[in-house]
Amino acid sequence: MVGAIQLSYLLAAVLFITGLKRLTSPATARGGNTLSAIGMLIAIVATLLNQGILTFRLVIIGAVVGAAVGLWMARTIKMTAMPQMVGLLNGFGGGASLLVAGAEWLRAGSGSALPTETAVTIYVATLIGGVTLSGSIIAAGKLQELISGKPLLFPGQHYFNLLLVIGVVALSVALVVSPGQVPLFAALVGVALLLGILLVIPIGGADMPVVISLLNSYSGLAASTTGFVIGNHGLIITGALVGASGLILTQIMCRAMNRSLGNVLFGGFGATPAIATGDDKALAARGVRSITGEDAAMLLAYSRSVVVVPGYGLAVAQAQHQVRELAELLEKRGAEVKYAIHPVAGRMPGHMNVLLAEANVPYEQLWEMERINPDMERTEVVLVIGANDVVNPAARNTPSSPIYGMPIIDVDKSQHIIVMKRSMNPGFAGIGNELFYDTKTAMLFGDAKASLLTLIQEVKAA
Amino acid sequence: MVGAIQLSYLLAAVLFITGLKRLTSPATARGGNTLSAIGMLIAIVATLLNQGILTFRLVIIGAVVGAAVGLWMARTIKMTAMPQMVGLLNGFGGGASLLVAGAEWLRAGSGSALPTETAVTIYVATLIGGVTLSGSIIAAGKLQELISGKPLLFPGQHYFNLLLVIGVVALSVALVVSPGQVPLFAALVGVALLLGILLVIPIGGADMPVVISLLNSYSGLAASTTGFVIGNHGLIITGALVGASGLILTQIMCRAMNRSLGNVLFGGFGATPAIATGDDKALAARGVRSITGEDAAMLLAYSRSVVVVPGYGLAVAQAQHQVRELAELLEKRGAEVKYAIHPVAGRMPGHMNVLLAEANVPYEQLWEMERINPDMERTEVVLVIGANDVVNPAARNTPSSPIYGMPIIDVDKSQHIIVMKRSMNPGFAGIGNELFYDTKTAMLFGDAKASLLTLIQEVKAA
Amino acid sequence: MRIGVPKERAPDERRVALVPETASRLIKTGLEVIVEAGAGEEAGYTDDAFREAGAAVAGAAAEVWGADVIVKVQAPTVEEAQGARSGSVVVTLLPPGRSPDEVRTLASQGVTTFSMDLIPRITRAQPMDALSSQSNIAGYKAVLLGAAVLPKLFPMLMTAAGTIAPARVFVIGAGVAGLQAIATARRLGAIVTAFDVRPAVKEQVESLGAKFLAIELAEGGEGEGGYAKELSEEAHRLEQELLREAVAGADVVITTALVPGRPAPKLITEAMVQGMHPASVIVDLAAPAGGNCELTVPGQEVVRHGVTIVGEVNLPATVATHSSQMYARNLASFLGTMVRDGELAIDLNDEILSAACVTHGGEVKGAAWKV
Amino acid sequence: MRIGVPKERAPDERRVALVPETASRLIKTGLEVIVEAGAGEEAGYTDDAFREAGAAVAGAAAEVWGADVIVKVQAPTVEEAQGARSGSVVVTLLPPGRSPDEVRTLASQGVTTFSMDLIPRITRAQPMDALSSQSNIAGYKAVLLGAAVLPKLFPMLMTAAGTIAPARVFVIGAGVAGLQAIATARRLGAIVTAFDVRPAVKEQVESLGAKFLAIELAEGGEGEGGYAKELSEEAHRLEQELLREAVAGADVVITTALVPGRPAPKLITEAMVQGMHPASVIVDLAAPAGGNCELTVPGQEVVRHGVTIVGEVNLPATVATHSSQMYARNLASFLGTMVRDGELAIDLNDEILSAACVTHGGEVKGAAWKV
Amino acid sequence: MEGLIGGIVVFVLAMYVGFEIITKVPPQLHTPLMSGGNAISGITVIGSILVAGQGGTSLAAILGTIAVAFAMVNVVGGYLVTDRMLGMFQRKEENR
Amino acid sequence: MEGLIGGIVVFVLAMYVGFEIITKVPPQLHTPLMSGGNAISGITVIGSILVAGQGGTSLAAILGTIAVAFAMVNVVGGYLVTDRMLGMFQRKEENR
Ligand SMILES: NC(=O)c1ccc[n+]([C@@H]2O[C@H](COP(=O)([O-])OP(=O)(O)OC[C@H]3O[C@@H](n4cnc5c(N)ncnc54)[C@H](OP(=O)(O)O)[C@@H]3O)[C@@H](O)[C@H]2O)c1
Ligand SMILES: NC(=O)c1ccc[n+]([C@@H]2O[C@H](COP(=O)([O-])OP(=O)(O)OC[C@H]3O[C@@H](n4cnc5c(N)ncnc54)[C@H](OP(=O)(O)O)[C@@H]3O)[C@@H](O)[C@H]2O)c1
Ligand SMILES: NC(=O)c1ccc[n+]([C@@H]2O[C@H](COP(=O)([O-])OP(=O)(O)OC[C@H]3O[C@@H](n4cnc5c(N)ncnc54)[C@H](O)[C@@H]3O)[C@@H](O)[C@H]2O)c1
Ligand SMILES: NC(=O)c1ccc[n+]([C@@H]2O[C@H](COP(=O)([O-])OP(=O)(O)OC[C@H]3O[C@@H](n4cnc5c(N)ncnc54)[C@H](O)[C@@H]3O)[C@@H](O)[C@H]2O)c1
Fold this sequence. Notes:
The complex is a heterohexamer, with two copies of chain A (462 residues), two copies of chain C (371 residues) and two copies of chain E (96 residues).
Chain A: H1 2-22, H2 29-48, H3 57-76, H4 82-107, H5 116-143, H6 157-177, H7 182-200, H8 208-230, H9 233-256, H10 261-265, H11 281-286, H12 293-301, E1 305-310, H13 312-317, H14 320-332, E2 336-341, H15 351-358, E3 366-368, H16 369-372, E4 381-385, H17 394-397, E5 416-421, E6 441-445, H18 448-461
Parallel strand pairs in A: 1-2, 1-4, 2-3, 4-5, 5-6
Helix pairs in contact in A: 1-2, 1-9, 4-5, 4-8, 5-7, 5-8, 6-7, 8-9, 12-18, 14-18
Chain C: E1 2-5, H1 20-28, E2 32-36, H2 47-53, E3 56-58, H3 61-65, E4 69-71, H4 78-82, E5 89-92, H5 100-108, E6 112-115, H6 130-149, E7 157-159, E8 162-164, E9 168-172, H7 176-187, E10 191-195, H8 201-206, E11 211-212, H9 227-248, E12 252-255, H10 270-274, E13 281-284, E14 301-304, E15 307-310, H11 320-336, E16 339-340, E17 343-344, H12 351-356, E18 357-360, E19 363-364, H13 367-370
Parallel strand pairs in C: 1-2, 1-4, 2-3, 4-5, 5-6, 9-10, 9-12, 10-11, 12-13, 13-15
Antiparallel strand pairs in C: 6-18, 7-8, 14-15, 16-17, 18-19
Helix pairs in contact in C: 1-2, 1-11, 6-7, 6-11
Chain E: H1 2-21, H2 30-40, H3 44-52, H4 59-95
Helix pairs in contact in E: 2-4, 3-4
The complex binds NADP nicotinamide-adenine-dinucleotide phosphate (2 copies) and nicotinamide-adenine-dinucleotide (2 copies).
């Protein structure tokens, strides 16, 4: 029986692994989730068969109430509120870990009956569970805008957090040395909760998804720790799985926002603006958002309408063949791709035509500015390749600008804009371009050819 | 202490994992092997610290003798004999597993003192170890040409093998039911060894590397089984690791030879010649070797001189841009790439020039037939893309051929030839081409554009 | 307000100042257009097409000249100018300083004249930039002419009858015309090298897949007071040397070097021509300004030392359909700056109008004609 | 053995039968070459270049005609033929059935004549296939001529002065010349459509990035005995209809349809020409065989219904440097079949020689001239 | 101790698997994947059940019961929400 | 039984890891990788040592000693051969 239960946990773990793996690709994601749910069902049923369970009454009460609440929440929540919902659910998971740790501690004579190593695991579970619980609630609150989305900072916050961590350690040590003191344990719980709040509160609302993902990873670790506490391999495996994959996901999300994981782990971000690569420190001040080739590729790979705006930089990079290849690739994935040709793009009349004809881009895909501008609003992604002046809104908005009055391609009306250029240097007209600072714009820095090669590779892999 | 030893095993396993992972890329392979060796050292040292070891005498004798032999073999073996050396080493590993199983069985009162599950594991270990030992020796012998490299088959061989397997099961059952019978155990060992021989003997010499890889995977599983026998996690993890990764490697090698793993697992191959995809059954008769895009890419990715021979098919596929891209990619990896242009390639004078100029292939890379032919022998890989008549050796060798007397590009003098076309259909002249049946030739079937796209992607990933 | 489009009377001028499509656009904005019969014929635009576009077709030139604004390709002759109505506006191509008599006549007639050659090169004026649109066409056509005259093929061909080496084209001056020439020659498969005094165009030349010929200065030639002049002489010698070599190696040389308002610099000497292969070709786009080659005879195709030198002065006119179309667009954009609500409203404070104005209120305004 | 290269005397023939590079190759194999002074001049090959290659340069034509093998581009005139030495060999371009008087004279002079136009199209003979090499050049040049005459640009250009639509080129007959025409027009950026009666060339046309115009048969028109003829009439009507439409939509039509040894099929009727846009162009490469267009005047450029019809009969001669080079290579390969160890050894059993032989042993051998 | 070591071995291996299985994720799947992972982390429900299964009316039992409820909210809500998100995505995919 | 289950859990996880870590291998590395894997499979040396370490002169002890020798041949030979192969490869790489 015990063996069967253990093997069931293994089976559940295998289902979780497979499920998670499938969740990373759009085609298999839904099935993956179902597999993972089946895994959970197996794990729960196996647990219920455990001979250690003396009564089902409390279990059933808890399960029915919990399931009902979960069901209700999942049914009624609006699609737009999904992220905070996930945050909240995560908080519940963390809370459960915290409660289990507490209950175990209480059952073991308030910790007196525990060997040191188990006691330590309980305190670790308490800490992680507590942080996850309060942190998730704050994150959800920020997303729901119940709490200000702005990063809230107070002076010396980092030191205070450090103090809290020290406090946790001290309390744990005290509890190990002299077990059985409920107030100390309660203090531990309190500090953990406070830490969760303080770690999340200074972070900007836009970064919350990353935080939730990280807290999710934490809650996996909490589950794993719980596994150690109650000596259950199923919990250990599954918790470690979620912990590790959550960490990787967090990292992926960080990269998508151009952050280092370190930055996230140490909390307190959101104070530095979301910014760029390399040496362009100056850009930071104006908040240009840069994007990696991988993420740009992901954005492109799954969008259905793409407009390419080529400029002089495409000619300089001699990347005409690459742009055609990328476009073909996207078309093969079902996207509609058009090229928007500005009448003075490049450095001679018809420069873009010469370039794109060389790469065999069909004439039908070349759209004149006047014809494509009305379509811009419906365009999901605009890929601006080495163009600058011809997409500069200053031509519309800034009468003092030397290019004022020139008709431009209205890329700023589209839903996403990816701009490929090497730096923040101006183009022919020698003026800055507010488009680059638009919140919808992501800069993909680098030589256009190199960037396009990356995009091609990544889109293929997507 | 026990904990430390267990953790050392874990550490060793982690080192093995990392080492194996690094072994898959040329840049990190050597370091990976070293890491893995360190892991092994840690595992051995940890084992020596085990309190279960009563005397070091026998251990030291065995270790010194074994190490000396291993050292001597590794030092003296010629580079060309590497594969059989690996086979032989693998046999030693399998032998060790067999011996451990035997020793354990003997120690446990010839199996009488064993719980059923442990006994079963011992018999499994005996079987796998025995098959690995004798199979590896046969494989090595075939490679060294001590045994005929030709597949040796006798009628009903498969049934006989089946009989042997049934025999193994029967003997095991008998041993479980009435333990302690040394002759039965000896018979088990004998049958396992015989099975190993019979499984490998019918396989052609050229397929031996795959067999060795598979036996290697088996020996990993044998180690894992040994782990179960002596209750050692380190052995279980490491054995499973080698078993799984070896299986994957076997699969990769199979694909490189265009075989299914099933074909390998059921043994008895080498009887069907190494052949092609899809419906072209007729080709099989003449032994055309087809290759996957992935393997063709690997071949290209690591060669230093590549000659591209474009023909009419390149024009039909309109794959000029892709060929240029592939060439650029290979150049970036350090290869020298030339295009060999036959004067009548295509369907109009200068057809290839028109095509390649469109894709912006630099004129300097275009070599006339007369200029490139002397270089052919020094060329590592020739990529024939949709060309047929212009590389047909019949023009040199077959006076009755309608193309006899036409000068051709001597691709058959190069070291490897990859031919990209859609089928075995003839070209303009309507005649067959012996080049395709050359042992140095591998056919990459499919539309040239599609194939090139695959190659590009795979070379990038290599 | 009425716009008149007379038939061009200059020899070999096949263009027309408005095409039906542009006429129809203007008419839609409330203007009237009157076209002299047969004005667009040589450019492939029939009178019927103009009528369909909503323009009136006049049999007599005088009727057209009675319009408020006369649009032309070539400057009006003195005779035409004398027939112009006082207070009317003439818009035409008119290179700075050229046709002084005609300009004087226009001024004395009280005609306001604008030259499309004087449109300032500011961003806003790009759609009116006739110099660019016509140069662009000239650059394209120069290559076609060169290729038609050259007894060689442009592209490389490897055939059963041997390998044909690609033609080498050398373009001097990489302005609008030069760049289009580079692009066209590259399209045809030639190996293209280009030279210009402005180092900024190096990148532009390379962006078209051609090689830029850069002057390599002698080592250690930098710094040291008073040395600069000698260096520049050295640089000039080097430049000459470089040009000589490049010209000698070329099958086709296309020259487009111009300095606005000045005669074209003489860059190719007779000696350089002598150094060329027999049967090579020079297409001198600077011919209207005297030519970049010493031996160019503007308006003629001559053979000197075995080298054919094409001195065609009006290449855009040989591509009349499209050059007219583009010129008409330029004109329409330009007219846009002087028309408000369908009425003439010339504001000479406007940057573009003031720059383009040649005569106004009985006076010659254009600086280039004042001397 | 001595090879003679006389100067071509036909009007507008700028080619020469041997070029210095090929002469030098032949000389290296032990042959002698004598070239008439000035023979290569118009193709860009000086007498000095021939001398450097090791050839003798003769002032008088008679000296050259004294050689063992005379190589020419155009068939010798009756006068020249009369000066030919009995037993000598003449190799020249000579379309089947053309120049009957000259052929008779050559025969009566006891000259062995080979026509490069009659090389069989077998694989081994590909390097001798002058028809291919010269057609190839003609196809290239036809497009350049068309582009030079057309008052439009070939490539699409989107500029500040509006968008220029790409030219539409329609190529009839996708043989060697047609395919090269397609490739060249595509290079220049035109949209190219092609038509040929041989369906096999569809793939070839598409391999050059052009569209093939296929005849779509009326539905249900298959089978049913006796219906075939009507169907073929229907098909012919459809073909005509198709051509009419395609021609009407084209800016440049290039016709290359030939049926060996027969007058060129008349594919473009006057009505079709009338249906074309004004200022369109037809380049009729079939002009030497009478032309594919009813209105073609071989050897002339005429304008009919506003359409310029170019009937140039010798386009390869306008690219004389390269066409001579390729022809010379073809010749040299051909000579290889009749020379053993530096001596003439004509084996009329050889597939190639027998096919190419026009006169031998005082008799006319070529079937096309026998009637 | 032996159990702890075994646990650690299992933990390390599982972490390895976790690290290896997630590689590339399109941004559109970031949230669903997070949500799916979150649902799995509801595995604490097992611990909760074991604790609550002890019965009794002690504080521990109450806490256990609440833990079961919390964990079940996480599990049920998590899977359903993930499925809803993915359902939307799938429709979008099908629209192509 | 508990030990067996634990072993199976570990085994399955390790198999997963083994499957995931090997993905793309250039053909040039097929043999070295096989050889490297083979060296690792010499891990049976652990089992052999434990058996041989029991001492005595019984058949089991003798078999154990031979097992140690066999396994050591596999380990030492395996790593050295792999290293030699890779060394060659590296030189080739460096030649570029
Ligand atoms: N078409 C004509 O006839 C003509 C003639 C003369 C002037 N102009 C003027 O030229 C301008 C044309 O506008 P545009 O948007 O095409 O060009 P642009 O405004 O000059 O901008 C080109 C951009 O490309 C980027 N770039 C250069 N090389 C690159 C490379 N290798 N990879 C990636 N990016 C690269 C540059 O930024 P980084 O340096 O940061 O990479 C630059 O900002 C207009 O102002 C127009 O008036 C046009
Ligand atoms: N150059 C000239 O002037 C000229 C003129 C006329 C004739 N020819 C003759 O044409 C021949 C030229 O030789 P060649 O080697 O270039 O061509 P080829 O001998 O005709 O062979 C072309 C090969 O390309 C393959 N192919 C066709 N489409 C393909 C696609 N989409 N993807 C991949 N492969 C494709 C075909 O095989 P699958 O069907 O199996 O794919 C075919 O065997 C010579 O015999 C020459 O004499 C030349
Ligand atoms: N509004 C705009 O932004 C705009 C519009 C059109 C053109 N332009 C720019 O104006 C510039 C000039 O264009 P253009 O074609 O009218 O110029 P142009 O016709 O006046 O001169 C042609 C070229 O000849 C070169 N040249 C002059 N003297 C030379 C010499 N001695 N040796 C070699 N080269 C010499 C010039 O540098 C120039 O590039 C171009 O760079 C073009 O991009 C800008
Ligand atoms: N040795 C060889 O293998 C070799 C060498 C050279 C050419 N060829 C082949 O020979 C073929 C003919 O070449 P060519 O250029 O000398 O042919 P050609 O000059 O005789 O004719 C030109 C084209 O006109 C087409 N045509 C004839 N009547 C037509 C009609 N009524 N309507 C439309 N099209 C019509 C023909 O089909 C041909 O494609 C080509 O396919 C070429 O590939 C083979």
